[in-house]
Amino acid sequence: MVGLLRSAPSELPHLTTQFLDFEDDSELTARSLTTAVLQFAGASWLKKEGNYADMLHTTEPELIFQKGGRVMIPLMKAEEAMNKRYNASRRAITSKVPATRACIGEGPMKRGYYVREDRTLESAREAEGPEVRVSHSFLKSIRFSRDVSLFLSIGKPDSSTADANIILPEEVDNIDPDIAHRYIIDWGTEAEVEALVEPADTFPLFSKETAYWLVGLTGTLGLSLCQWMLHNGARYIVLTSRNPKIEPDWLKTMASQQAIIKVTSCDITIMQDLQKTYEDICSTMPPIRGVFQGSMVLNDIGLPSMGLEHLQTVLRPKVEGSINLDKLFQDNSLDFFIFFSSVTSLVGTLYNYYKPSLFILFGNKRSLT
């Protein structure tokens, strides 16, 4: 219903709608409902008479009635962290981060050094062993052998100093006294520092030891995504659609880059067909650790002329197909499960595209993690 009310005005400009969402049944009273209806009807009449521009009032397409009588207006909010990572691939983006709590590192540049957010260090939070709160460190690493370079740091274990008291004298004796460094970093500041934001694909995002399944993505978008994944560490990729048509030259190019690409035909709206394809992938490829669901059917038709059959044709790949894929991975063995929606789910378009784009089965997957 939300999809219908959001998309209908874009197809029928003369139509004005308002959606009322009561989060708590106790707020659904005759007074609250009557007030909303009268305000909506009054604003519509004033617009028709041409007197609405002078009113300090807006007719919102959606209102949310929260417990306690608070009325909220749904608005789009920018995701600042994700936008910064995306734009960091095109220009230098900085962000203020707490020096004592964030995972940050440093790197050389033409005129000095820069501080950066380092997401690769996040895994250190889960590492076993004592945690050390570093107070000072060298700016440059010390080369101990041909293949080993380390940063000399001074810190205090968060848990106990007993191990440090035993190990430190022995380790200090092994340091060459002739080593001289002019600059030392003080990590003890409590202030925030300006850190350079790194793009999401700065480091490999995928594993060469696992497989990734691209469903309904055998067109230009899917092939482009496939190449990007290979560039970021992936090796085994499965491409599936009802009628995959991929140029042999493209497959040869991918094979020359040590990629293992498997192309299969499958209708994901039929569970038996999907199950068979899944079993074939499992028997011929490494374990599947990521799924991209991008299936869709194009069938342009306006809301006034749309019949149930037209609607179901577009709905089935995104809705039934996504439900079937979800059933395959109930064991929660995936690193990610990405559903391809569309910006049309925010700005509105033909109803038969808008509604499936709003299908949010991913909320169920997220609740399992």
From TrEMBL:
Domain Ketoreductase as annotated: residue spans: 210-365
Gene3D superfamilies associated with the record: NAD(P)-binding Rossmann-like Domain (3.40.50.720)
UniProt keyword annotations, A-Z: Oxidoreductase, Phosphopantetheine, Phosphoprotein
Any GO BP: fatty acid biosynthetic process
InterPro entries listed in its UniProt record: KR_dom, NAD(P)-bd_dom_sf, PKS_KR, PKS_NRPS_Biosynth_Enz
An example molecular function term from Gene Ontology annotations: fatty acid synthase activity
Superkingdom as given in the UniProt entry: Eukaryota
One Pfam short name: KR
PANTHER family: FATTY ACID SYNTHASE, SI:DKEY-61P9.11
Protein name: Ketoreductase domain-containing protein
